[in-house]
Amino acid sequence: MDLKNLFSLKGEVALVTGGAGIIGSAVVEGLAYNGATVIVADIDLKRATDLANKINEQLNETTLHPIKVDITDEDSIKSMVNIIVKKFKKIDILHNNAAGKSNDLNAFFEKFEKYSLDQWNEIMNTDITSMFLVAREVGNVMSQQSTGGSIIQTSSIYGIMAPDNRIYEGSNYLGRQINTPAIYSTAKAGVIGLTKYLATYWADKGIRVNSITPGGVESGQNEQFIKNYSNRVPLGRMAKAEDMVGAIVYLASNASSYVTGQNLIVDGGLSAW
Amino acid sequence: MSHSLNELQNLNGKTALVTGGAGYLGMAMCEVLAELGSNIIIASRNLDKVETAREKLKIKFPDIEVHSLQLDLLDDTSIKNLFHNINSLDILINNAWSGKKNSFESISNDDWEYDINLSLNSVFKMIKHAKPLLKKNKGVILNVSSMYGHIAPDYRLYNNDNYVNPPSYGAAKAGVIQFTKYLASFLAPEGIRVNCISPGAFPHKETQQDHEFMERLGSKNPLNRIGYPDELKGVVALLCTNASSYMTGQNICVDGGWGIW
């Protein structure tokens, strides 16, 4: 078996939700550079289109295709999957990656004692119910393909570990003081449960299901936060979105043909100590 | 950023040492590293076996250097001598294994000690010697553990004593997983990443002839089959290259989902 074929995604159709986001934009580029046709699904169609155009230009071919999806809307997901299947006939790879930001940051970062049920339900909906819906719709397509497929779902370091709340002192992001709300940990832990469940559920259909757990990705946090966070990591730095690409291509491709139900933790060693 | 895995996984000019590199799984590991451009040092107790492996690799990958060196992991002098012959090292894979089948009732103190010496103590000794070289090149360490390092064998699978997995094996492999995490922490300041893999059921070719046992073994995992050596190539290519530059202290299970249900 030759490695180029082992990791090659040539001829494969990959769907990445949140494809224009922080991690998604590195992933779609990585998948495209390894040969896949990539559907960049995002709620922000303009951002997805700009990103697809940029990478297509670099590659000098139309490999990335933007599409709008609202992952909190069942019909929007169904319609996206229909359009993809109509145009590309199949979906080999799903990176179930999108997670929603709250429209109300004050409510999202509220302390646990005062957390509103509405906000809890909203994030449950955007961060885990959405994954169920996308996995259900795409899984339906994959289970009818003789070739099965590979599903990768994005969890988070806070799905497997508790935050050290001291690192948020003096931190600033999105123009405000931040923290990690309990709902985020809860939803991301749910992603791991869903991943394992689907791994055995669809094993006989040739669908492998794994998750990826990124450590904190540097994306515009203030210097104090970056310092606080990096100090907790054996490798001494926050993650870059590109750090996820190797693990994603591994899980997407035949290079991981005997791997299912696993959680690949790309955290610079944070969870090792 | 590097765009394709080809760039991230390029090992041209690097040197990798694989213990047990001539064995059933070790050979696949040597092949993948050679394919990525790395020079290979195969170390094994049986010099004829490493020499044959060296020749095979040379035919497949004529552009890389392949060295075969004798190594007895139970002999401290042999380990020391091995490192006298190595002046540069980027990748160390601790993969070697040998041991007897034993049950909890049958295992003697000597067999227990043999297994712990070979599967755990030798990993410590190899890394101790390799560290200065790895530090110089900001290298990586990959330890080969096993699913039995974190999950118990189902005794019902092994009703034929010929295949019984000894209690010492899992104890040593569990040690390897924890030692990996320890080193990921303590070697991080030196720029050395340390990870391990836990292969599931990868029985040797002779064992595969027992179809009934293969069926029992396969049915223990969701993918409903045993694994084959080529299926470890991907994880080696991930963990031994810059494709995993932000991964350390991890244990990747290549086990068909064995541990998840």
Task: Describe this structure as you would to a colleague.
- The complex is a heterodimer of chains A (273) and B (261).
- Chain A has a single domain (3-101, 125-162, 182-219, 240-268), classed as NAD(P)-binding Rossmann-like Domain (Rossmann fold), CATH 3.40.50.720.
- Chain A is built from 10 helices and 7 strands.
- Chain A has helices at residues 3-7, 22-33, 45-59, 74-88, 105-108, 117-143, 157-160, 182-201, 223-230, 245-252, and strands spanning 13-17, 37-42, 64-68, 93-96, 149-154, 207-214, 263-266.
- In chain A, strands 3-2-1-4-5-6-7 form a 7-stranded parallel beta sheet, with helices on both faces.
- The model of chain A has no long low-confidence stretch (mean pLDDT 95).
- Chain B is α/β, with parallel strands linked by helices.
- Chain B has one domain: 3-Layer(aba) Sandwich (Rossmann fold).
- Chain B is 40% helix and 14% strand.
- Chain B is globular, with a radius of gyration of 18 Å.
- Chain B: One of its GO terms (biological process) is fatty acid elongation.
- Chain B: It holds the Pfam family adh_short_C2.
- Chain B: GO terms for molecular function: oxidoreductase activity, acting on the CH-OH group of donors, NAD or NADP as acceptor.
- Chain B: InterPro entries: NAD(P)-bd_dom_sf (IPR036291), SDR_fam (IPR002347).
